[in-house]
Amino acid sequence: MAYSFPEEVLEHVFSFLSSEKDRNAVSLVCKSWYEMERWCRRRIFVGNCYAVNPKIMIRRFPEVKSVELKGKPHFADFNLVPEGWGGYAYPWIVEIARGYPWLEEIRLKRMVVTDESLELISKSFKNFKVLVLSSCEGFSTDGLAAIAANCRNLRVLELRECEVEDLSGHWLSHFPDSFTSLESLNMGCLNSEVSFSALERLVARSPNLKTLRLNRAVPLEKLPTLLQLAPQLVELGTGSYSAEIRSDLCSSLLEAFSRCKNLKGLSGFWDVVPAYLPAFYSMCPRLTFLNLSYATTQSPDLTKIVSQCHNLQRLWVLDYIEDTGLNALSMSCKDLQELRVFPSDPFVADANVLLTEQGLVSVSEGCPKLQSVLYFCRQFSNSALTTIAKNRPNLTTFRLCILEPRAPDYLTFEPLDSGFGSIVQHCKNLRRLSLSGLLTDRVFQHIGTHAKKLDMLSIAFAGDSDLGLHYVLSGCESLRKLEIRDCPFGDKALLANADKLETMRSLWMSSCAVSFGACKVLGQKMPGLNVEVIDERENLDSIPHNSPVEKLYIYRTVAGERFDMPHFVRTMGKDNRRFK
Amino acid sequence: MSMSIEEHDYIGLSEANMEKKASDITINKDLNLKATELRLGLPGSESPGRAAVNGVAIKNLVAGAKRGFSDTINGGSGKWVFANNGGSEVDSVKNGGLFCCSKVENKNSGSVKETAVLASPKPVLLENKSQVSANSNLQASSPASKQQVIGWPPIRSFRKNTMAVNQTKNEQDTDPKLRSGCLYVKVSMDGAPYLRKVDLEVYSSYLDLSTALEKMFSCFTIGQYGSHGAPTREGLSESRLMDLLHGSEYVLTYEDKDGDWMLVGDVPWDMFIGSCKRMRIMKSSDAIGLAPRAMEKCRNRT
User: Fold this and answer.
1) pLDDT tens-digit map of A191-247
2) Least confident residue range of A400-414, B23-37, B80-94
3) Calpha distance A82→B193 (Å, rounded)
């Protein structure tokens, strides 16, 4: 006799599975598990909005509460994807509004979101709670006003580095007086001033507010008032951190900060006036996250700050911190897991600050938990890379950006192949890697051989030949996202590894050497891929087939080719495309 | 492996079209001198023959994907010389006001390396403070400013724009050579289905900007754009293109820091890029009331 668990029990077991991978695996066990799982899946993550059709999603998963979508390729962040390429949220919102009336959460990244979309969201979901828009564009503060006015149960409204058309600051005033459920508000990327009294009243009636990120327009003088109203804050983004030096403001800031016993994360700090920095020193020992990457503070002040942050886990800072500051960091912050150092003046040829590879080497020595690095600097060496690799085999993310394209090892003038080779060899759990500096095909051989867990790889101005690309595509078993610019990679490697592309989310190649002809062949042979050529030149039809395309974006999809493309984007190798 | 990479500039022109574009530019300059109203070109344009290659112009030159237009060829103190794949490009560079970077066959390795403005087999540009590159034929009069490659270094626009504001606030002199290197503004055109973004810092004059915008938006004015089709230019002669763009159909306007819409070209270039938030190419008929001068000029032309 065969017994099986009652459905309710299995569902209960499944409810503990949050990872997509686990849920996908469960759904493959047998038909009844597939059915049970699909009815109880509550969160969906779609890494490429063109990979799947929303109708398919809704049909399979009828009771979803949270949807997360990503649109444009990552290089869109650096203006490599022309305006109008795509990534429109509206068609998704329309379907979701119809299919999931009880949806609670929407998270969108790099998508074009219109005011219409926001209005539709605000009116379609009775229990809507969370809206997070990262690097999105296409909407104005009118759309935000609709969200504020209509989403009665909203808990989270976060705008992370979005391009918002700032019509006015009045949108904030649209939150009704009866609205008290706010837990997180991030308006850091907005330019216009919101009514301060409206903001004050909103904060005052939001007892659950844990995260508040102000925009630059909120002056420092107003900060103490807000902090007094929300001493329960866990994450704060200040507005402009600058004011005339007045002792009364100093003391009220100091007092207000000291009241915030739960504050663990700080950000903002635009236009820093150093005299006001000591106001939050008392909080430093409690901080786990500190984002000073907009603060034009100099090294001595930065050093003083980090030296007090003994519990710091994540630090984002400008290169003003210099090697000395990073050295202090390495001695004081033994819990550090993530470090991001941004360039203060990237377009100046000469170094304006004393930040070299040494800073990162010190941190790799002193911080045993360091896992994630993003580092912009002007010089590096193979020996430094090897030292870092040996110090920190637990690295999972390593993104090094040497500002000068193709800069060699500054000590030996050799390519940085062996240095990055050490990184992939020692850091066996490396999931994300960004390369820079002078690199030959050699480095790709190392990567293909060792980087077996690598999930995302970014390459620029590197390599000698197709062999480089071939090493990566044939060797990196876990690779899902590959983005390449200005490398001499062409048709051969791409066509030889066509099957690999179906195991990946996407491949971006711009200013490389892949021809129109190859793209067409690839598109024809691989029905599971959309091979998009993005090319803004005139007379595209008269460019010969063996000529290279400007930009290429290949992604796997079950939704077929898309039809919302501008004239400069073509899906190659499909039947009814004009460009045959 | 064969490297027949077609060169193209930032805006997306191919070199196959360069000669045609070169002559376009020549015509532009002539028109600019006479009739400076009511075209995408601007009333206050500088004289086209720029005497010296200056640091700002150098910012337009890129070894890499980002290029800008420049008319610095005429009698400049430096000549732009490129080793490149074909002779025709060099010719058109000499004839017209356009140049762009070409990828160079590196004879040593047989692979393509970019013209040695930024990187060269000799490393460390940091050492040579007064030279951009030993191999380059360019004259860099500004030691501080750097060539810009589009999208490099990989910094998000939000951060770049924030830093740009920092710098303009901090610096007393508005020396354009010390700019942060990027100032993206949106450009929309009445009737066009989507807008474009341009980096104002790439251009050094109204002439540069207007030329670039004409190229960018010419596919829309030709009026054959459809949602699935691509613009077709068969049968469209050069002169008709000129008529469309230089006739009184469109004017270029911008929104300044105060939120007012102004006609582009009224203020000095540096002041313009310091205050321009976004631009709009509007039909001249809509420009009534925008600036009295615009309408006056309209009347004068007819």
Assistant:
1) 888 999 999 999 999 999 999 999 999 999 999 999 999 999 999 999 999 999 999
2) B80-94
3) 13
pLDDT tens for B168-217 read: 555 544 444 444 456 778 888 888 877 788 888 888 888 888 888 887 77
* CB–CB contact A84 B193 (8 Å): yes
Residues of B in contact with A341 (CB under 8 A): none
* Local confidence band at B166 (pLDDT 50, 70, 90 cut-offs): low
Of B273, B240, B235, nearest to B254 by C-alpha is: B273
Under 8 Å CB pairs connecting chains A and B tally to 184
* Whole-angstrom distance, CA of residue A251 vs CA of residue A247: 6
First to last CA, chain A: 61
CA distance A418 to A439: 9
Write the residue in B123, B153, B231 that is nearest to A403 by C-beta. Answer: B153
- Tell me which residue in A296, A405, A536 faces B12 most closely, judged by beta carbons: A536
Q: What is the ipTM of this complex?
A: 0.90
Q: List chain B residues with CB under 8 Å of A538.
A: 12-14, 17, 219, 231, 233
Q: How many residues does chain B have?
A: 302
Asked if B151 lies within 8 A of A546 by C-beta distance, the reply is no
Question: Which is nearest to B150 in space by CA: A511, A434, A568, A189?
Answer: A511
Please tell me the pTM assigned to this model.
Answer: 0.76
A34: number of Cβ within 10 Å: 14
Nearest to A258 by CA among A228, A288, A294: A228
Q: Where are the beta strands (DSSP E) in A259-367?
A: 265-267, 289-292, 314-318, 338-342
| Beta-carbon contacts of residue A436 (< 8 Å; ≥ 6 apart) | A400, A401, A402, A405, A407, A460, A461, A462
pLDDT at B114: 36
Residue A577 CB neighbour total at 10 angstroms = 15
The whole-number average pLDDT for the span A188-193 is 92
Express as a percent the part of chain A with pLDDT over 70: 98
Please indicate whether, in this complex, the C-beta atoms of A405 and B111 are within 8 angstroms of each other.
no
- Select the residue from A293, A347, A569 to test the B interface by mutation, using most B Cβ atoms within 10 A: A347
CA distance A306 to A299: 10
Give the CB-side neighbour count of residue A566, counting CA atoms within 13 A. 19
Which element (helix H / strand E) includes B166? helix B157-170
For A285-307, the pLDDT digits (tens) are 999 999 999 999 999 999 999 99
In the prediction, which pLDDT does B169 show?
57
Amino acid identity at B199: D
Q: Does residue B295 carry a pLDDT above 50?
A: no
